[in-house]
Amino acid sequence: MEFLRYQINKMINPVNIVLSGGLLLIILSLLLGKPIVFITAIGIPMALICLIVSFRKPVFLFYLTFILNYYIIGITRYTPLTGVSYLMDILIITILFILIIRSGIYNDIDWSGLKTNILFTGMSVWMLYCFFELLNPTAHFGAWITNRGLAINGFLITVVTTVLLVKRSHLKNILYIYSFLTLTAIIKVFIQRFIGWDEYETIWLNSGGGITHLIHSGIRYFSFFSDAGNFGSNMGCAGVILGISGFYSKNRYSKLLFISVSLLSFYAMMLSGTRGAIFVPIGGMALFIILSRNIKLMAISTLAFAMLFGFFAFTTIGESNPQIRRMRTAFSPNEDASYKVRKENRKVLAEYLQYRPFGEGIGLAGVENQKFSKRLTTIIPHDSTYVKIWVETGITGLIVYFGILLSAIIYCSYLILFKIKDNEIRGYLAAILCGIAGLLLSAYGNAFWGQYPTSIIAFTGFALIFNGKKIDADKSETSGKEDKKYELPF
């Protein structure tokens, strides 16, 4: 009888019910010849199973969100999908909703990490500041809604990741996922470089993308990212994070994977032709010199930093290569015509914003926002994350936002230097922080910080570092198989 009761309970498992219902719909669709029913039969059960698994293990849904975040812009190039920012917001809010429900039912969600996370406090202040921007006399509500990511993304991602990513396995899973995502971006850019553009990329280039990507100094490749600037900076970040992580990894297969993808990432960064991207590895290595806490590593890092800087700034080696030649112009900007134009644009904006300490309003910087309002700030390209935030939220907003991020970097550096005991974990977290710091440095010359996939990558990295002490103390990898039941199999 007990065996029979067990089998009945097993049969009425929600997953089994969903699968059975889906199978029935598939059979009916095949019998009736209805493709829409077939698609529905596959899609709904998959979505419900995903939701059930996500409720049992919320980190599973975050992994899916992290992956989708990386591909979402590429997907929009090949499909008529619109409103992707709403989709990503829904996914993050769904994770937060699941956490709240689980916390109420099982009381098994630890929210205490938010109390000591200065980035959570800072992003809360920033979100309130952005909401007050709606009262700005020059603000535009439609522009604010469309560009709301600047206000809420940092806050939402910080909350979700701080609560979820608390184990060693979470840190390693993110690094593995990130390495494989990066590898797919590299494969795509190699196809563009050595095989050619596909139909949809050609349409995008002919519709205006070619103006900034098919230029006299060479082709700027972009993989499946929004543009070459976004792609190049993210490849530089991946090169830094995975390169340093590979050095610290204790697993020889992980070491080989991380270092191989890192080297390929730097090559892909060069193919992007993005001058500002070179400052990602330069900034990352500069910070790593401080964080390494090892005289030998400091010496090696300093030498590598000097060689990289010297190669681009003081030599003409490889000048015949268009990618190297374009990268080198970043070290002599006053000789570059586009830099001079940007400089003049900023002078005009500075004069306009002189008596606007709170800026023009969120979503009202850059030519891409002329659809909301045609004014001086939407006629002049901003060409920089710093300039974009300055124009939209004023000098006050610029100081608040980057003051928060700079404080987070300083505090994360303190945690890595003095609070993390395990050398491998310290190396992974240092790698992530160096990558984020490099992105922020590169953001001065490229407006990619708020674009996909950068925000989730950066704020996820911050959360992992703020949770560093918990991750360092976690022993679930060596005890408690039940804790690893739904973890990724690495």
Instruction: Indicate the percent of residues in helices.
Output: over 70%
Give me the Rg, rounded.
24 Å
Q: Which residues form runs of ≥5 with pLDDT under 50?
A: 1-12, 478-490
How many DSSP E strands?
Answer: 2
Instruction: Give the termini distance in whole angstroms.
Output: 40 Å
> What's the structural domain tally?
2
Give the overall shape. Answer: globular
Number of helices: 21
The assigned structural class equals: mainly alpha
The largest sheet is:
2 strands, antiparallel
Strand order of the largest sheet: 1-2
The arrangement of helices and strands along the chain is: HHHHHHHHHHEEHHHHHHHHHHH
Rounded average pLDDT: 84
* Proportion in β-strands: under 5%
Topology summary:
Blueprint: H1 2-11, H2 14-32, H3 35-56, H4 58-78, H5 84-105, H6 118-132, H7 141-146, H8 149-164, H9 168-194, H10 199-213, E1 214-215, E2 218-219, H11 228-248, H12 252-272, H13 279-291, H14 295-314, H15 322-328, H16 337-352, H17 376-379, H18 385-418, H19 423-442, H20 454-466, H21 468-473
Antiparallel strand pairs: 1-2
Helix pairs in contact: 2-3, 3-4, 4-5, 4-9, 5-8, 6-8, 6-18, 8-20, 9-11, 9-12, 11-12, 11-13, 11-19, 13-14, 13-19, 18-19, 19-20
